[in-house]
Structures are given as C-alpha cells and as structure tokens.
Amino acid sequence: MINPILPWQQHNWELLGSYINQQRIPQALLITGRKGLGKYQLANQFTQSLLCTARFDNGLFCGHCSSCVLFTAGTHPDFMLITPEEDKKIIGIDAIRQLITKLTLKPQFESHRVVLINPADQLNNAAANGFLKCLEEPNERTCVLLLTDKPAKLPATIRSRCQKLAVSMPSQQQATAWLNNQKVTENIDVLLSLAQGAPLLAKEYASDAVIKIRLQCFNDWVKVAKAELNPIVVAEQWHKQNVSMILFWQMSWITDMIKCRFGSDPKQLYHADLQNNLQELSSKLNLKKVYTFYDLLISSQQKIETQINKQLMFEEILIQWAKLNHG
Predict the structure, then answer these.
(1) Structural domain boundaries enclosing 281
(2) I want to staple 93 with a disulfide (CB 3.0 to 4.6 A). Which of 50, 126, 160, 265 is the partner?
(3) DSSP result, 50-82
(4) Residue 116 lies in a domain
C-alpha cells in the first residue's frame, strides 16, 4: 500500500486513525492550519477511511472496496461536499438548507456519512446560523468536517461545538525533502519563505513562477521609491494580479526593512535574497513614517475581501510609498 499521508501529518493521522479504530468518531471536527499544509488531503483521507468497508489496521482506506470506488468516482451517496457557490466567495443559506434536507434521511451504507465544508469561514451569517442546527441536533452516523485557515472568522457558537485538529507545520528538512520528491529542486529556500513554510503552497508557487512575479513587483516598488516609475501605472498592473499576495509582499518588505534597520540576522528576513536592496531602502527612511505606512497596508488587507476598488487601493498605497521616500 502506498501511504497517502503527508510526512508532517503522521501525528495528525495517528489521532484520526485512533478515532476510527476505537469507534470514537467526532460529530464535528474543525481542521485548521496554514494554507498549503494539506488540510483538504487529510480530510479526504479521513473521509474515505470512514466510508471504507475494508480498512487497514492503521485506519486508512483500502482503495478497492465498492465504497472506495464510489468515493474515487465522486458518486458516493454518503459524502457531501459543501463549497462556495460558483463565481462567489461565500457559502449561502441555500446550500445549508439542501444539506439539512439530505441529513433527514439515513445513510445509505452501513458505515458513516461525512459532510465536508471547505472553507468553513466562507459560511455567510445566514448559512452559519442554519448550519448551527446540524451541530445542535447531530444526525445518525454523521461526521461533519470543517476546514479553514481562518478559524477566528467562524462564529464562536460553531467553534465551541467542534473537536479541533490543527495540521502540523513541517520542519525545514521535511518540507525540503518533500519538495525534492515533487521534482521542485530550485530556489526551495525562497519558495518556502514566500509560502511561510507551507510545502504545498511552495510547490504551487514554483509552478506559477511566483518568484519571477515577486521580483518584477519588487523592482517596480523600488522604481516608485526612486521616482523612476509612476505609481498610477504600477497600480494599473498590480490590481490585475493576485492582490492578496502583493499586499502580503509589501507588508513583508516593510517588516524586512525594519529588521534591516535594526541589524537583524539576514536569516530572519522573509526575503533574504533581496537583502541588499531592502537595506538600501531602509537606510533612507523615517521609521515613524514607515510604521504609519505599515498601518495603511494592514488597513488595506482588512478590506481586501470587500468590494473595495483594488486599483484605487494600490494607487493610494503606492502614492504614499512614493511620498515616504521623498517626504
């Protein structure tokens, strides 16, 4: 049998496997952890194992029984996946009403029925209130799995009714070895730094050429600081890309600049490969004004999921960045 468990999830699986072997299946399990750690893969493995009729001794699914075949084909009648509506970022009340209706029926197989909500933090208020009934009045042989990298966005009433499982962070050695096995061999340290240690996200960044995009954005950022590029032109380009990522980069560039100013170890930088440029920028800035600018970035990040005009947001940020360097 090929072990599908990611190396850094062995401890997590030992707990989930014990739930299965001891028949102590949680009615609701909240799985948390940083994006890119494999929460969905772990939840899928737990789901298939719960549905499997010929599990191995460690609780893992066999992959060959009729239940496993149905699950792999995406047609298992006792598995329900709830995700945001197409072209939307929310899980609305209609999806929860349909779920509640389905849960009034008994599971079709003799094993458990599983509901997987991903990401659970996208339940809107009405959906969250409706879903609460599922937790307050649990159904027969039903396990609800909620996945999120933002547990604080879930209502406390939902969090308090769930058992919790935090997906483990890998060591640098584990993450590097796994990426090498995935044929990612170049710029691993930079990729892991950008992904904040999350291997799956680092692999995604490698395939999406994120290092190249980040360098282009940084070069534009430096040119704005040196008055070599118009902030409006850069904002026009940036708002068409991954806005959240570029905002995070700017925040981490500022953080690195402050660290450079205070002589921190280069190994502690998010962007160690950009140290020389960051050092040069930091030496010319008024730290008090830098902190004020950082507050603007935080405020912008908090608004990123609203209907804010992303281009105007970047225009304001870049104009203030230009002023900071020439004030």
Answers:
(1) 209-326
(2) 126
(3) HH-SS--TTS---S-SHHHHHHHHT--TTEEEE
(4) yes
